[in-house]
Amino acid sequence: MPPFFSIVLPTYNRADFIEIAIQSVLNQKNKEWELIIVDDGSTDKTSEIIKKYLSDTRIKYHYQTNQERSRARNNGITFATGRFICFLDSDDYYLPNHLSVLQETISAHQNKPALYYTNYYVKNQGVNKLSKGFSEIKKKGIFNILFEALLQTNSVCVAAELLVNDKFPEQFNLFEDNHLWLRIISKSEMIYNKTPTNVCCIHKNRSLNVSSMKLKDKSFKLIEVFFDLFYSGEHPHLNAYITEKEKKMFIASKMTVMSYEALNLGALWMVYYFLFRSIAYCFRPKKIVEYSKLFFGAPFFIIYSRHIKTHNA
Q: Could you tell me the pTM of the whole model?
């Protein structure tokens, strides 16, 4: 009999982390699962660690040449036999309640084919901080994703039938997950449970961490992904829920976020670069105070931060 859950875990050179991820699945209160590990061409000891767990028949291991995480996740979806498919990055982990909370939520909604989502912790320097989560769900959840927070992949669980025709876009290697989530939600809905069920671990080698040299490239990739969603004409279900003004406001808000990222990196010219791009995409009168604080306060913040680092050194 197929399991209720399939968990797709892509990995690439995560020998230092993957054992914690696998063990977190084994520690689940809910035992109706299969774990599909797709090794995307690791060259370290990742495979040796995984093979120690293969005596458990619920754990399946597939090796492929390096093809990036979208292809790895898509292949994992193809191998999955569960009614609902979850995802886990190999440097993160589930809390023991993850699957049980999801199953309770799914059952409460009569196994409705949808995207189910839970809250999570962010672990940075050994400290767990609870994610802000979402307020009232609007426009099936599309509004919340665009204007509150992009979805965190470990918290996502999708009815398998919704992944038959929609997969991760393999032409993108950043923000590709939310490209898929928005497409799925536009054809179904997002059902949210505010209970935290997993931990996203911040570390220096995390793929989304960027230096000031790569932050500009990150912004281009974000625009590329969301311009494809908004303007390619291939996603009419999504566009039925987003106005032109909301599209511009979303891109503008993400440019502001990147301005703050540049501020934390101490890259003043990039603070202004993203700030002016944000204003160019969509000037928001309610944000004038924030614009002013960024524009005038950034130099002082960077000088002060450098002084503190020098003093502490």
A: 0.92
